[in-house]
Design a protein that fits this description.
- It is a single chain.
- With 227 residues, this protein is mostly helical.
- Helix 1 packs across helix 9, helix 3 runs parallel beside helix 9 and helix 6 packs antiparallel against helix 7.
């Protein structure tokens, strides 16, 4: 599933955490958010380097300033909730991410919209490792390479910020690093596949499948937490 998610993100700009994080949480709660964030960092660095020529560097800067605003309350929330509450919180955020991804507001990459998307993304990304949809919405009308390059540049630095914040709060340590390493092979396979799929991927077909799978997985986590 990680390979599938990585191939999708390498092709359309985001999706690895949206697809894989709910399933990883079902397998082992310890895999989210820290290890998933660290594994995602590897993918975002690879895609950012590949599409570096198309990045909106100014937009990345505004999004990162917003992410700082969203990361701090996210860490505070993680230190305060129980495991069951985290499951409920996580599932709700995933479903919110799906709803955001389904929305089609006529957003444009202005300073205000990028900053706001970065703040929402920072909170969601730190808590659940899923921070893609808010920023992706702002750039949804951009060309594929610009979308992938900008999102990946933002995610790379944003992941580092979130992991650093989690580590400072005692929520990311050596065990999380080891778990992250176990996820990296799937990431690398997916990225390799994306080198071929990014040129022909049918966004109209891929996007609904990603969202349906994500919603169903989140619903399973939610039901499990309520039982």
């Amino acid at each position: 599933m990680l390979a599938v998610g990585a191939a999708v993100q390498g092709s359309v700009g985001f999706g690895v955490a949206l697809i894989a994080a709910p399933l990883l949480l079902i397998i082992d709660r310890d895999l989210v958010p820290g290890p998933m964030l660290a594994a995602s960092l590897v993918l975002t660095l690879l895609v950012a380097w590949r599409d570096r020529g198309s990045m909106d560097t100014r937009g990345i800067g505004w999004a990162l300033m917003g992410r700082v605003l969203g990361t701090v309350p996210a860490v505070l929330a993680l230190t305060a909730v129980s495991a069951r509450s985290f499951d409920l919180f996580f599932a709700t955020l995933v479903m919110l991410a799906v709803v955001l991804s389904l929305a089609h507001p006529d957003l444009r990459p202005t300073r205000g919209s990028i900053f706001t998307a970065g703040a929402v993304s920072g909170f969601m990304g730190t808590v659940s490792s899923i921070g893609g949809p808010p920023v992706a919405l702002v750039y949804q009308h951009e060309a594929g390479a610009r979308l992938r390059g900008t999102l990946s540049g933002y995610f790379a630095i944003g992941c580092i910020m979130s992991i650093t914040a989690l580590a400072a709060a005692g929520l990311f340590g050596m065990r999380d690093l080891v778990l992250s390493a176990l996820l990296v092979p799937g990431i690398l396979v997916g990225f390799a596949i994306s080198r071929w799929t990014l040129h022909w991927v049918d966004r109209g077909a891929t996007r609904p499948l990603v969202l349906i799978l994500s919603f169903v997985s989140a619903a399973f986590v939610l039901v499990r937490a309520l039982l």
